[in-house]
Each structure stands twice: as structure tokens, then as C-alpha cells.
Design brief:
By secondary structure, the chain is an all-alpha fold. The mean pLDDT is 91. The protein is 58% helix and 0% strand. It is elongated.
Length: 133
């Protein structure tokens, strides 16, 4: 399938609303490109690729906002607390995998020396005399 700006614009808009790319492409296979063709479009057009990445960030934010609304019993809430909890947990886990910089758990390891000071490196050179037997 050859590049179609109207189709690309629609895909970008739907991604920005939090709809997954694969779901969009499968929704109308005759109109939308296959996943590999989509990535070829992005590789060939740096502006499309930039817009795609920005739309993904917006889409992740939209998913997070929907999870927040669901947790408050609004928006996509099913009214079933257990079902809503499953939806929220799934969305948050996916966001942490898809965008760990913004939605992942921050794990930091800090190295420090005695009393919280800087780490000191000591190099010791030993001289050994080996006596012949």
C-alpha cells in the first residue's frame, strides 16, 4: 500500500486518543496499511515519524486519564469495582512497559562512601618477591 496522507492523519489522530496501532490497522484492512507498511511510511517520512512518536505520548496520557476517570467511577467505568480494577491495573502495567520513562516505577541505586560521602577508590600495589626453590 502506498503512502496516503489522509489515512496517516487519521491513524495519528486515533493513536493520540489512546487507541493501539494494531487495533486501528485491523479495524479496516482495506483502507489502512499493514503494520510493516506503516513503519515503512514512518521510516521514509521523518515528519510522520515525529508526529507518530508525539501521538504515542499523547495516547499514553489519554490512557492514563481514562484509568483515572474509571477509578473515580466515571467515563469508561463498568460499575463493577473488580472489573474496573482489572482494567485500570492492566492499563497501568501496559503504560509502564510502553513508556517506562514516564509511567514506570523509578528504581534508583545510589552508591556512597562512609557517612554518605563520595565513594573512594584505593589502589594498592604489592610487590612480592618469589624465591626460587
Amino acid at each position: 500500500m502506498s503512502y496516503d496522507k489522509v489515512v496517516a492523519d487519521e491513524i495519528i489522530a486515533r493513536i493520540a486518543e489512546g487507541e493501539p496501532l494494531r487495533q486501528i490497522l485491523r479495524s479496516d484492512p482495506g483502507r489502512f496499511p499493514r503494520k510493516s507498511a506503516w513503519y515503512n511510511w514512518c521510516e521514509a517520512d521523518t515528519e510522520l515519524d515525529r508526529r507518530f512518536k508525539a501521538a504515542r505520548d499523547d495516547g499514553h496520557d489519554a490512557i492514563a486519564e481514562r484509568a483515572m476517570e474509571t477509578a473515580r467511577g466515571r467515563g469508561d467505568s463498568s460499575g463493577d469495582v473488580q472489573r474496573d480494577k482489572l482494567i485500570i491495573d492492566t492499563d497501568l502495567k501496559l503504560l509502564a512497559k510502553w513508556d517506562p520513562r514516564r509511567y514506570g516505577d523509578k528504581v534508583a541505586m545510589e552508591h556512597s562512601g562512609p557517612g554518605g560521602g563520595p565513594v573512594q577508590t584505593v589502589t594498592r600495589i604489592e610487590r612480592r618477591i618469589v624465591k626460587p626453590e
